Amino acid sequence: MNLKACFKTLAMAAALALPVNAFAAPIVIKFSHVVAQHTPKGQAADYFKKLAEERTKGRVKVEVYPNSQLYKDKEEMEALQLGAVQMLAPSLAKFAPLGVKEFEVFDLPFIFDNYQELHKVTQGPVGAKLLKKLEPKGILGLAYWDNGFKVMSDNKPLKNVADFRGQKMRIQSSKVLDSQMRSVGAIPQVLAFSEVYQALQTGVVDGTENPPSNLYTQKMHEVQKYVTLSDHGYLGYAVIVNKKFWQGLPADIRTILEGCMKDATKYANDVAKKDNDEALAAVKKSGRSQLITLTPQERAAWKKAMDKAHKDNMSRIGADIVKEVYAATGYNAN
Ligand code: LMR
Predict the structure, then answer these.
(1) Looking at 205-282, which runs of residues are DSSP E strands?
(2) Angle at 27 between CA 21 and CA 29, to 5 degrees
(3) Which partner from 7, 203, 280, 303 sits 20 to 30 angstroms from 289, CA to CA?
């Protein structure tokens, strides 16, 4: 704006008794994520956008980029640190490549029996302690958003531990998930989320794991013959922002956005179970893959075999963190 136009704007603002910044360009928050819009994370991101734009009266504009439109898993982390995007909600399994291995505690198989146990961690002191560990990386953790408990899909029925032998399974970039798959004799392969459907379709991998909401919205069930309802592990998110960006926001705006995040978090956690239940019902209805239910004995055998992932990763995650989570959830191997 040239000097003359600038004076004109100020004069207009004064005449209309508007705050001077009523004419300022909005603050843009680019929020990138890798899942479909109709998932717990996708819906919560859209809800955050709605609240932020309404409550700041347009001073903040949130641009949500779903489905890896802007960046894939690894790139989005780099983009956040470089300031090319301002907000992400990566799954908790994706923080170790940043150097914060402690988050892999959430990937330990069978560590949470239900959302109540999970919330003791995400809404308690351990959850807060973990988010603090992001700060030296130039990242602030604002909240945990739920997704849900994972099913195991494959072109072969996975019921007994022996069924996993030699199966190539796509995993997220987590050493705990790598151990989990190896503990049952499978061959894990890390792939970005955006590549999973094609890898399953072309046989690059035989199977994978994800909550039903991700399985269904990516149409993975159309290229998997069997889905085992195992609930063997949890997948959820931390909402993170570029620290410099967040701390550089005008204080009043930051306070409003913190309130929006609080409400979007409640919303995310309210829709998560329902979305997953509905996705599972839709998979069933589609008839594209056969659902397998484990007997308590079969499930106990998975748990027993996968306990190796706990033992093997105790020092990687940090025994103190693992024990604090055990204390909160009451995990025991048997
Ligand atoms: C995955 O890569 O399987 C998930 O992390 C995707 C997501 O963000 O839910």
Answers:
(1) 207-210, 226-229, 234-242
(2) 165
(3) 303
Closest residue CA from atom 8 of ligand 1: 91
pLDDT digits (tens, 9 = 90+) for 315-333: 999 999 999 999 999 998 8
Reported residue count of the chain is 334
CB of 181 closer than 6 A to ligand 1? no
Residue 210 CB less than 6 A away from ligand 1: yes
Best residue among 73, 197, 209 to mutate for probing ligand 1's pocket (most ligand atoms within 8 Å of CB) is: 73
Is 50 exceeded by the pLDDT of residue 20? no
**Which among 313, 263, 289, 205 is positioned nearest to 51, based on CA atoms?**
263
Q: Tell me 25's DSSP state.
A: P
Is there an atom of ligand 1 within 6 Å of 167 CB?
no
What number is the average pLDDT over the span 244-271?
Answer: 98
CB 139 within 8 A of CB 80: yes
**Position 334 confidence tier, pLDDT thresholds 50, 70, 90:** confident
Q: Please tell me if the CB atom of residue 193 comes closer than 6 angstroms to any atom of ligand 1.
A: yes
* Closest CA to ligand 1's atom 5: 91
**Domains of the chain, earliest start first:** 3-329 (3.40.190.170)
Spell out the residues 6+ positions from residue 281 whose beta carbon is closer than 8 angstroms to its own: none
Q: Whose CA is nearest to atom 2 of ligand 1?
A: 193
Confirm if 173 and 93 have CB atoms less than 8 A apart. Answer: yes
Residue with tokens 């903040």: 60
- Is 206:154 a contact under the CB 8 Å cutoff? yes
Residues 6 or more apart whose CB falls under 8 angstroms from that of 87 comprise 29, 30, 31, 32, 62, 80, 239, 240, 241, 242
193, 198, 240, best to mutate for ligand 1 pocket (most atoms within 8 Å of CB) = 193
What is the CB neighbour count within 10 angstroms for residue 228? Answer: 25
Cβ of residue 153 lying under 6 Å from some atom of ligand 1: no
